[in-house]
Design a protein that fits this description.
With 44 residues, the chain is mainly α.
């Protein structure tokens, strides 16, 4: 019973990391065209 649980955790971990990487890449592409740093600071 150890192996299926470990495999499930591994798959969920890989999915979470790739999902995070895709999200950060998408937000970087979206923020890149606006070169004004002031607009980014207003959001934060």
């Amino acid at each position: 019973m150890k192996y299926p649980i470990g495999l499930l955790i591994l798959i969920v971990g890989i999915y979470a990391i790739t999902d995070l990487a895709i999200k950060t890449r998408y937000t970087r592409k979206r923020l890149k065209p606006s070169k004004n740093k002031k607009s980014i600071n207003k959001i934060n």
